Fold:
Amino acid sequence: MRILVTGGAGFIGSNFVWYLLGLGHEVMVYDAFTYAGRPENLPSSVKVVRGDIVDKDKLFSVAREFQPDIIVNFAAETHVDRSIRDPEPFIRTNIYGVYTLLEVVRRIDTRLIHVSTDEVYGDLEGREPASEDTVLRPSNPYSATKASGDMLLMAYWRTYNIDASIVRPSNNYGPRQHPEKLIPKTIIRAVHGLPVIVHGNGSQRRDWLYVEDTCRAIWLVAEKGRPGEIYNVPGFNERSVLEVVEKILELLNKLEALFTSRVIGRARIEGT
Ligand SMILES: NC(=O)c1ccc[n+]([C@@H]2O[C@H](COP(=O)([O-])OP(=O)(O)OC[C@H]3O[C@@H](n4cnc5c(N)ncnc54)[C@H](O)[C@@H]3O)[C@@H](O)[C@H]2O)c1
Structure:
């Protein structure tokens, strides 16, 4: 099959590209190469177009020429801390960019798999695991823009009958993740003997999912999922941020590394 992967130079997108190539598919990557997109994440053999998903004309002409059977969208602003400092790029890419993609999908005969996140359900601490019908309670600008993109997609499916599905994985880890994210950042800082930084007291619980499992789930939805459906992809592997950090430090034999808290948005300082 011919697959256009938007945001394919980032963490999950590039893992997905390698996964598809392993299955023998023809892949084209469309990526704006923001700070999070790295050419070295991709094999040199793959076709790459530098472009912004907000650029409707360019995206449309690339898609019309390549004629993908499926478009899988990973292009997004993804770092929660950055969204708290400056929500604008998140609104631009995660909402307006999804609108642009939907307009392209409306005009060419293709299927869209949009990668969203379980963060649209908000904080699940003490609550039942989310189902696809759980009320959306995004708690920061990042997750609010992801929820908005999802709603736009569902509205386009109902209104224009486009062929599109949503995948909502939980927290991913694995190779090629940007060093600003918790696990790579913790490893890098610990290896260099720097203090390890966690938000508040690190009690926030996340469900951890290996990136290759996410890729398999996304491809399963691409092949067998129904239009207008949402598919949660949990890891069934819940750990607090502190537990994850402690495990890494234990494996690196660096348990003595300092913990420093900092204030982000309304997060509280819970000691150092
Ligand atoms: N990483 C996780 O734990 C996780 C969990 C669940 C869902 N997700 C979702 O999966 C998707 C991919 O996440 P990731 O962690 O790989 O992100 P990432 O930040 O590593 O990569 C994002 C990619 O999108 C590209 N991009 C950004 N803005 C763009 C634009 N306007 N036009 C074209 N390309 C653009 C970047 O250059 C980069 O290559 C996102 O939609 C994210 O919300 C991520």
Summary: Residues 182-202+240-271 form one domain. The pocket of nicotinamide-adenine-dinucleotide is lined by residues 6-7, 9-13, 31-34, 36-37, 52-54, 74-78, 93, 97, 115, 117, 146, 169, 171-172, 178 (CB under 6 Å). The two ends are 52 Å apart (CA to CA). Residues 118 and 141 are 14 Å apart (CA to CA).
